[in-house]
Amino acid sequence: MARINVVTQETASAEQQALFDAIQAQLGIVPNFLKVFANSPAALKAFLGLHGIANGGSLDAPTGERIALALAQQNACQYCLSAHTAIGRKVGLDGVEIEANRAGTSQDAKAAAAVRFARALVEHTGDVTTAELADVRSAGYSDAAIVEIITHVGLNILTNILGKASRVDIDFPKVELNLAA
Fold first, then answer.
1. What residues does each domain of the chain span?
2. Phi and psi (nearest 5°) for 38?
3. pTM for this structure?
4. DSSP 8-state secondary structure symbol assigned to residue 13
5. What pLDDT digit, counting tens, does each position of 148-175 carry?
6. Angle at the Cα of 113 from the Cα atoms of 108 and 119, rounded to 5 degrees
7. What CA–CA distance (Å, rounded) separates 71 from 61?
8. Which residues lie below 8 Å from residue 99, measured CB to CB, with a gap of 6+?
9. Helices (H) and strands (E) in the chain — how many of each?
10. pLDDT > 70 in the chain, percent
11. What torsion, rounded to 10 degrees, do the Cα atoms 92, 98, 101, 107 define?
């Protein structure tokens, strides 16, 4: 059971309902974590705006999902791991690739550098090394793309924190976290 209110169609204000209608039109569903965000329409609008900007950049959708999978596992957010496993499959990631992403890498060498860099950003709270920056650059990422990776990291940290703090019910096929040995 969620520890933060989940706004429903029945309890939504006119502003919240308008946001739900827009989300429903775009995604076909209103995921539970967005119903938690809807407690603050301003926060939901901010998230949707940042999400749109992050997905409008040069990083392709599979790479964005690879980063989301890596960080959901790293940050132990089962809601996000479940959601991004489903979304990752929709953008073409197979089971082997999803497992690689969860482990902090990728079968694609360029994407692997983005995933490593994203995980390093989280591990070092942004204080990455010159070598980590050189690694992502040598894989072919420009400074603009590096900023986009950082934006995806920030967006995913936000959703991981919301998912964990709220303990919102998972409304995607549930995926178990890999627990550290």
1. 61-166
2. -65, -15
3. 0.95
4. -
5. 999 999 999 999 999 999 999 999 999 9
6. 120
7. 15
8. none
9. 9, 0
10. 99
11. -60
